[in-house]
Write a structure and sequence with these properties.
heterodimer; A: 200 residues; alpha+beta; Rieske Iron-sulfur Protein; three-stranded antiparallel sheet; B: 428 residues; mainly alpha; 4 strands; 60% helix
Chain lengths: 200, 428
């Protein structure tokens, strides 16, 4: 360092080898500080677009599912999106369990798409899914009174023609995955809380 | 133009200003530069677009004085503008129809560039900057359509922002959509930021238009023959010859604009967008504005989500490299009999894709019979759009590169002057 100081800003230390000078150090330090500084300023500007604290705080809902008629579904709004709670008939449950997994694009058994009730037993009559097509986000249709539910009698997405079965599994069309199962748990036999997993 | 200037300051004030801020020189040299003497009416769409851009800026700034970017008030504020604001019934449709007509003009402008080879050496940068303008216009148009917060607004926003969820989750696909939305779904924060960006984008477009015109002033305009300017006899001054020609075309274009504005102001919109946005109910048939339909058809033509999204963006991306895909040295397709044929099929393909985009994929182009259930079966739009998508890409990747090597062009005139004076033999 002494040698380089004496050369008064020359590119090398005067001895002809490439030992960095104080000027090199200042250049690199300034450049590095600039990059880090830009990063520090850029991150708040990028992160401000993520969901705000009040949006995050509205993340759970509780609902009573006891008055859904067998064969019908209700739609609740959770995080601005629809959630389907469908009360399936015994025939539908049998059908969902009879499916050969090799036929599925996104392989899941019906039981894997359910959560246990307060007694630790699955409640296959209630299927809870996010009502958003995994293709481009439309709300798939279902009506117990007509064939709007599509070829597999589950849900049909009118936007780009995805067919789901009554377990919400993708069977035909462009959607890549099954209807999402939201985090939820049974507060009691008839009430579910959506947005939160059971604590156990 | 490079080097020389046509400006000669005469008064003392002009000389004083020219030595300090040569802004009059810039204006004069922008307007008075030699242009090919044979430009036809297809060349007036640039000026039409410039005027429409100014119209969109003015009406947009006015609308922002009355519009409220909030999910509770946005829809009503558009109704308020149309019903209560003085002349709002005129200014709001001017902005909405103006956007549509701007896309009409830009498509004609782009097809013009393709037919006459205006993207070729030495005009590649004009074309590429033009494509950037087109992309910015698509983004501005999409965000603008979301602002009225009707059913098509919100569902268009949901479908388009979900395109980004096609990015595999390992590559942070899920959080990209949350970041775009500012929440777990398209909602108030999304509307608010779209309004902000919709206000920003036109100014970026203005900056890009300045680059587009600057790049144009280096080689000057292409022309219907595609032959470069050789002598002064090939040219006319832009002003007054083309300023007047452009002004006439603008007047005719404004008549079409006025016809929509006064006689069918809602014809280009979708009736579902007069239903306030409802995030729990998807309209039976979501369609984008007409100017996005060809790309929407390509998205739906591919059965895989990620590949569909890639195909759609590739359809625009491929236009950026068009100058290097076309191997022919002859610019104008006027002298390229085969290229001309394939080009017109390409135009029909784009229109056909637009038709496919407006239909449900399962709709039939034509029926060939009925199935056991008694429903008609036949050639569906999804298959039609697959064939057209194939041709769209083949035109760029296969046809244009090969044609340049195998096609025998027709004889071209010696100069622009010779072509105007009727000597097309190429001999004199």
């Amino acid at each position: 360092m002494n040698t380089s100081a004496k050369t008064n800003g020359a590119e090398t230390n005067g001895a002809g080898d490439a030992t960095p000078t104080r000027r090199d150090f200042i250049h690199i330090a300034t450049g590095a500080a600039t990059i880090v500084g830009v990063g520090f300023v850029a991150w708040p500007m990028i992160d401000q677009m993520n969901p705000s604290a009040d949006t995050m705080s509205l993340a759970t809902i509780e609902m009573d599912i006891s008055n859904i008629e067998e064969g019908a579904q209700i739609i609740a709004k959770w995080r601005g999106k629809p959630v389907f709670v469908r009360h399936r008939t015994p025939a539908e449950i049998t059908e969902a369990n009879a499916v050969n997994l090799d036929e599925l694009k996104d392989k899941q058994t019906d039981n894997e798409r359910l959560v246990p009730g307060p007694d630790g037993q699955l409640k296959p009559q209630y299927l809870v899914t996010v009502g958003v097509c995994t293709h481009l986000g439309c709300v798939p249709l279902f009506d117990p009174n007509d064939d709007r539910g599509g070829e597999y009698k589950g849900w049909f997405c009118p936007c780009h023609g995805s067919h789901y079965d009554n377990s919400g599994r993708i069977r035909k069309g462009p959607a890549p995955t099954n209807l999402e199962i939201p985090p939820y748990w049974y507060v009691s036999d008839t009430v579910v809380e959506i947005g939160k997993e059971a604590l156990t | 133009m490079s080097g020389s200037s046509n400006y000669d300051p005469k008064t003392g004030i002009e000389k004083w200003l020219d030595a300090r801020l040569p802004i009059i020189r810039l204006g004069v040299d922008t307007l008075i530069f030699p242009s090919p003497r044979n430009l036809n009416y297809w060349w007036t769409f640039g000026a039409i677009l410039a005027v429409m851009l100014v119209s969109q800026l003015i009406t947009g700034i006015i609308l922002a004085m009355h519009y409220v970017p909030h999910p509770e008030h946005a829809f009503d504020s558009i109704q308020h503008i149309n019903r209560n604001v003085n002349f709002g019934w005129l200014l709001q449709p001017m902005h909405a129809i103006g956007a549509s007509l701007m896309f009409l003009a830009v498509y004609i402008h782009m097809f013009r560039g393709m037919y006459y080879g205006s993207y070729k050496n030495p005009r590649e940068m004009i074309w590429i900057v033009g494509m950037v303008i087109y992309l910015l216009m698509m983004a501005a148009g999409f965000m603008g359509y979301v602002l009225p917060w009707g059913q098509m607004s919100i569902w268009g926003a949901i479908v388009i922002t979900n395109l980004f969820s096609a990015i595999p989750p390992e590559a942070a696909g899920q959080s990209v959509t949350q970041w775009l939305w500012g929440g777990f779904s398209v909602d108030g924060p999304t509307l608010n930021r779209f309004f902000s960006l919709h206000y920003l984008l036109p100014f970026l477009i203005v900056a890009m238009v300045a680059l587009h015109i600057w790049a144009l002033h280096i080689p000057s305009n292409n022309n219907p023959t595609g032959i470069s300017i050789k002598t002064k006899a090939d040219t006319l001054d832009f002003h007054p010859y083309y300023t007047i020609k452009d002004a006439f075309a603008i007047a005719v274009f404004f008549m079409i604009f006025a016809w929509f504005l006064f006689f069918m102001p809602d014809s280009l919109g979708h009736p579902d967008n007069l239903i306030p946005a409802n995030p729990l109910s998807t309209p039976a048939h979501i369609v984008p504005e007409w100017y996005y339909l060809p790309f929407y058809a390509m998205l739906r033509a591919v059965p895989d989500k990620l590949m569909g999204v890639i195909t759609m963006f590739a359809a625009i991306g491929i236009l950026f490299v068009l100058p290097w895909l076309d191997t022919s040295k002859v610019r104008s397709m006027r002298y390229r009999p085969l290229a001309k044929l394939f080009f017109f099929v390409f135009v029909l393909t784009c229109l056909g894709l637009g038709w496919c985009g407006a239909k449900l994929p399962s709709d039939l182009v034509f029926a060939t019979g009925v199935n056991e259930a008694g429903n008609a079966v036949g050639f569906t739009f999804v298959w039609f759009s697959r064939i057209l998508t194939l041709y769209y890409f083949a035109f760029f990747i296969v046809i244009l590169p090969i044609l340049g090597l195998v096609e025998k062009p027709k004889p071209r005139p010696l100069s622009i002057e010779a072509s105007v004076l009727g000597d097309t033999k190429g001999g004199a």
